[in-house]
User: Fold this.
Amino acid sequence: MNFVTHLECANCGQQYDAAKVHNLCTTCQKPLWVKYDLAALKKGFPKKELFGRPPTMWRYLEMLPMRDVANIVSLTETITPILETKRIAAHFGVNNLYVKDESRLPTGSFKSRGMAMAISKANEFGIKRVACPTAGNAGGAMAAYAARAGMEAYVFMPEDTPVINQKECFLAGAKTFLVNGLITDCGRIVGEGKAKKGWFDVSTLKEPYRIEGKKTMGLELAEQFDWELPDVILYPTGGGTGLIGMWKAFAELEALGWLKSPKKPRMISCQSEGCAPIADAFKKGERFAKKFENAATIASGIRVPAAVGDFMILDAVRASGGTALATPEVDIPKWMQLASSREGIALCPETAVCLGALEVLLKEKKIKPTDRILVFNTGAAQKYPEAVQEKLPRVDCTKPIEWEKI
Assistant:
């Protein structure tokens, strides 16, 4: 049973018919929320209904916008594990530090969730051609799910996007283009092409459904923590859909009465000093972020100089009692290496920024050592060979081994 009532602008409140195709609000050009009849959902979908369901994001189907399960486009979006990290915790001097590892999803990142939902809804609406700008992982996910659905896909990415991301889009059959600019320039091209090429724009927050896919991260972690949410969530922030989606999920779970406590996590928006529009806006007390000029970071997924959902990110962070901050770009390889060498967890460079943020916030006493802390690993480190430049020593097997050098 579908419990969607309508779509609603996150800024001006204008309502839209959920049975029709929409991008941004036509009144103010801001993103749209999917709204549900939560009272009916509470009666029609008790928590016990989850028992025995497959361990994928679709186990929460009643809290998602699909009208017909036959239209779902899936590569089996599994529940991702939450890993306790005792050695990393000891490094930081905290008691409870966890990593939710989104790299286990079908396309190697959390983008699988959003694109599975967006392409499924596009499929339900009969859309046959889709396009998106990407900083890396979103393009690969979109290309894969479009291929799964038999859709024509177009991807536009900055020319310095990690090579693996370029290749996965090409391999999935997407028409893939490199752009001599940033993701905002790619987004402009996608927007301009809607009338000329007839594609549907599935850019971050420029359609209502990617956020619903990302929302499942919040539903999932709540269930994994037995409906008692962690104290702090550190989240690498580019377009911010995941952070916004989780905050929406927590509100919906509270309305359903599923949470053991009304206390929600402090949401920490983490960025690199190389691209920090949200951190800058938070520091200045502003609701809308200014475009970040000359954005540059090896964490390509958070190299988003202007996010269409900037106010939604900042609203969620402030409502949660959290914060937004940026940490040094040069520290990213250090944190990646720390996590992998201490725990065997291959953190992507975007998530490495979260460890830098954790260090700062512990020093500032904004996070307590006794807090339950959750960090999101949003993608597989193996997709970012450019982020690790370490030159390894060589051994000449044709000569006697110099064991003193080993």
